[in-house]
């Protein structure tokens, strides 16, 4: 199964540059950043990319955009994609995204149980077989794990839901990129991929959702336990 190299989104790169600027200038909470016009010139990007980057940073409580007044630093200790990561803030960030994931992917699981067809069943089965193979050989399963969850959205057969997922995929992907620097953090979810799939194959939404939430409970427990250690 071919792997696609994930491209970096422009707004993510711009967001990183804004964070570097905050660090380099030693800005503190409440300090004002340059205007949108000044930032576009500083980073050599368009207004739309800059505004998307600002929305991205607002969602993580790093900046606050006040209409008619300007852009302000909100929390310099918030989780960042570059530089040193504070574990407690990464935990907070992951738990926020997990709340969204439960709602969004939970609905995708429900729809997938209703709409999954034979072609998608074959795709998901092949994905799980590769997952099993990677696991048995001690290989990194992050990419194949992520692919399995992407296939759930495809199986849901709702283009709008899939579009919403794509719009936050870079945040979603943080669960599969070794949070806290521990690639095996969510290894205990492994068997539930198979039981969830069984629910989808049987068009049993109740069973599939139950297994999905077991998986998410393990993810949440792992995040909370690691922060406490």
TrEMBL record:
Keyword DNA-binding: yes
HTH gntR-type domain boundaries: 8-76
Pfam families in the record: FCD, GntR
Database matches in InterPro entries: GntR_C (IPR011711), TF_FadR/GntR_C (IPR008920), Tscrpt_reg_HTH_GntR (IPR000524), WH-like_DNA-bd_sf (IPR036388), WH_DNA-bd_sf (IPR036390)
Family annotation (CDD domains): WHTH_GntR
Alphabetic keyword roster: DNA-binding, Transcription, Transcription regulation
UniProt KW DNA-binding keyword: yes
SUPFAM superfamilies linked: GntR ligand-binding domain-like, Winged helix' DNA-binding domain
Protein name: FCD domain-containing protein
Organism whose genome encodes this protein: Paenibacillus campinasensis
């Amino acid at each position: 199964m071919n792997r696609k190299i994930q491209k970096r989104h422009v707004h993510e790169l711009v967001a990183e540059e804004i964070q570097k600027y905050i660090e380099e200038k030693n800005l503190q909470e409440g300090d004002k950043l340059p205007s949108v016009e000044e930032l576009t010139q500083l980073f050599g990007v368009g207004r739309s990319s800059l505004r998307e980057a600002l929305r991205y940073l607002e969602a993580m409580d790093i900046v606050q955009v006040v209409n008619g007044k300007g852009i302000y630093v909100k929390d310099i200790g918030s989780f960042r994609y570059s530089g040193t990561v504070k574990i407690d803030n990464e935990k907070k960030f992951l738990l926020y995204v997990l709340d969204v994931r439960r709602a969004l992917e939970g609905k995708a699981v429900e729809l997938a149980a209703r709409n999954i067809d034979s072609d998608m069943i074959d795709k998901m089965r092949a994905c799980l077989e590769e997952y099993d193979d990677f696991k048995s050989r001690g290989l990194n399963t992050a990419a194949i794990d992520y692919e399995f969850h992407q296939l759930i959205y495809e199986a849901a057969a709702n283009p709008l839901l899939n579009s919403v997922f794509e719009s936050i995929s870079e945040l979603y992907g943080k669960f599969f990129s070794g949070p806290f620097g521990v690639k095996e953090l969510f290894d205990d979810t492994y068997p539930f991929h198979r039981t969830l799939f069984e629910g989808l194959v049987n068009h049993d939404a109740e069973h599939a959702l139950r297994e999905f939430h077991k998986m998410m409970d393990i993810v949440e427990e792992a995040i909370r336990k690691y922060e406490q250690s």
